[in-house]
Amino acid sequence: MKIMSNEQLVVSYRDALKSEKDKDWAKILKDEIQRRGLRPFKNR
């Protein structure tokens, strides 16, 4: 995985969730988001 800023990481995760094909990529991104302590959605 290439190095991403926090904002790029969250945007990539949201895009991967919208795409049905990118479930594995979404899981990898989610793991990285959790490791960084980010919240990908405002309502959580």
What does this structure look like?
This protein is mostly helical. It has one domain (6-36). The chain has two helices and no strands. Helix 1 (6-18) packs antiparallel against helix 2 (23-36). The N and C termini lie far apart (26 Å). The model has no long low-confidence stretch (mean pLDDT 87).
List the helices and strands and how they pair.
Blueprint: H1 6-18, H2 23-36
Helix pairs in contact: 1-2
InterPro entries: Sda, Sda_sf
Protein name: Sporulation histidine kinase inhibitor Sda
Pfam families: Sda
Q: Please give the alpha-carbon distance between the first and last residues.
A: 26 Å
The radius of gyration over CA amounts to 10 Å
Structural class: mainly alpha
The proportion of residues forming helix, as a percent range, comes to: 55-70%
Outline, from the CA principal axes? globular
Run of helices and strands: HH
Bin the strand percentage. under 5%
Largest sheet: none
The strand count comes to 0
How many helical stretches? 2
Mean pLDDT over the residues: 87
**Quaternary organisation:** single chain
Low-confidence stretches: none
- How many structural domains does the protein architecture include? 1
What key phrases describe this protein's structure?
single chain, 44 residues, mainly alpha, 2 helices, 0% strand
Brief overview:
With 44 residues, this protein is an all-alpha fold. 61% of the residues lie in helices and 0% in strands.
